[in-house]
Amino acid sequence: MDDDKPGEPYAQAEARVNAALTKLEASLRSLNGRVRSLHRIEEEVGKLESDRTRLAGELRQQQARADQLDKAAGDVSRRLVEAMDRVRHVMDAAEPGDG
User: What is the largest CA-CA distance in the chain?
Assistant: First the structure.
């Protein structure tokens, strides 16, 4: 027959179950840590998306402002050229004896 003592198969099975439970607990701790990390990453991504949306809006506003400033600068430049032409015309007309 078998040389095993009467409680030995039970003790071996209990040891295997305990070892399996220990591994399972370690796996669960590891998984729990990964899930927490995933949640932190998801929160960070949400913040980054929010920042990106805000910055995109600010960029659009600044681009519109830059377009307005470019248009205004063009208007000022055109007016300056017109004013300088008028001054030159007046000065040329005021010079005596060229004609």
Answer: 142
User: pLDDT tens digit string along 49-99?
Assistant: 999 999 999 999 999 999 999 999 999 999 999 999 999 999 999 887 655
Identify which of 46, 18, 40, 21 has the alpha carbon closest to the alpha carbon of residue 32: 40
CA 7 to chain centre: 63
Q: Is pTM beyond 0.85 here?
A: no
The Cα 14–Cα 49 span in angstroms is 51
- Please enumerate, as own/partner, the contacts of 49-57 that have beta carbons within 8 Å and a separation of 24 or more: none
- As a three-state string, the secondary structure of 37-68 is HHHHHHHHHHHHHHHHHHHHHHHHHHHHHHHH
**Dihedral pair phi/psi, residue 7, rounded to 5°:** -95, 0
pLDDT, residue 1, reads: 45
